[in-house]
Backbone:
């Protein structure tokens, strides 16, 4: 059964043989987290065609088997993590298919739907995920969806594989991953956009740019931490900072005059729609 739940970042130290197809930044972050949590290097495989990246992986992760191309060494993998660019997936899947017939397939590729995963890999036990960039430092949040054929054990394994990226949220329908993309997948850019504006304003008001940047980023991080640790609604937390006739009220009045909340909601709807369009395009290719 697919239920919506948020889980903390506590990866399991006991993992079966897992193959990563693609050894880029996200794969490296997951590998590092899994090894730090106690996973055996001998149980991890990475297929990475670029020699320089293979060398970096071998240096950073001693004991992990790093392959130039798919081979019989993948036959014992009980899970495969797809971490190639979406436009490279079809070719990579064709090369890997003979070696991964019985594995659980977990995708961290943006926009590649379960229908395309099944079509290209001939697999039915699928978990599609949408992480975000703070996953690179273990502070991200990932949306996950499991196909009907995936078992509870499959879901637990996928959850363990993504745990090094941060928190996880399971959704009940695959199309909800487009909403996940709009809220959290693209979300770091919204936070950086706000931080840019706060930094600019601070500099215009006489602070150094470094001071304004530090104040803006610490404020956003602290506010998020406060909200996560509070049982009060976001509206209540906002009101707690807003004294009638005070400085915060003056700033929020400008936001309200510009219909800022409505604009933000419209922006996320646009991101959701674009995610659907990109998924449609990949399905048609």
Residues:
């Amino acid at each position: 059964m697919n239920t919506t739940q948020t889980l903390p970042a506590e990866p399991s130290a006991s993992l079966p043989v897992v193959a990563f197809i693609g050894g880029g930044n996200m794969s490296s972050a997951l590998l590092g987290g899994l090894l730090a949590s106690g996973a055996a290097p001998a149980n991890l495989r990475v297929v990475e065609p670029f020699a320089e990246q293979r060398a970096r992986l071998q240096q950073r992760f001693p004991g992990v088997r790093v392959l130039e191309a798919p081979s019989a060494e993948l036959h014992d993998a009980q899970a495969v993590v797809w971490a190639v660019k979406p436009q490279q997936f079809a070719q990579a899947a064709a090369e890997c298919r003979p070696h991964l017939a019985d594995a659980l397939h977990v995708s961290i590729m943006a926009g590649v739907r379960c229908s395309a995963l099944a079509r290209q890999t001939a697999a039915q036990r699928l978990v599609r995920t949408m992480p975000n960039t703070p996953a690179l430092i273990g502070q991200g949040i990932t949306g996950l969806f499991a196909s009907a054929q995936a078992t509870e054990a499959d879901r637990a394994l996928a959850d363990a594989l993504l745990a090094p990226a941060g928190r996880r949220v399971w959704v009940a329908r695959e199309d909800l991953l487009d909403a996940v993309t709009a809220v959290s997948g693209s979300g770091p850019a919204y936070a950086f956009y706000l931080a840019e504006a706060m930094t600019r304003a601070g500099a215009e008001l006489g602070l150094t740019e470094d001071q304004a940047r530090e104040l803006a980023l610490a404020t956003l991080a602290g506010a998020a931490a406060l909200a996560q640790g509070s049982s009060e609604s976001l509206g209540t937390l906002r009101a707690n900072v807003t004294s009638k006739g005070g400085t915060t009220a003056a700033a929020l009045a400008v936001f309200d005059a510009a219909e800022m909340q409505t604009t933000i909601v419209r922006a996320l709807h646009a991101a959701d729609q674009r995610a659907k369009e990109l998924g449609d395009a990949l399905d048609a290719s």
In short: The chain has a mean pLDDT of 94. The beta strands are 5-7, 18-21, 44-47, 65-67, 79-82, 104-107, 126-130, 140-146, 166-170.
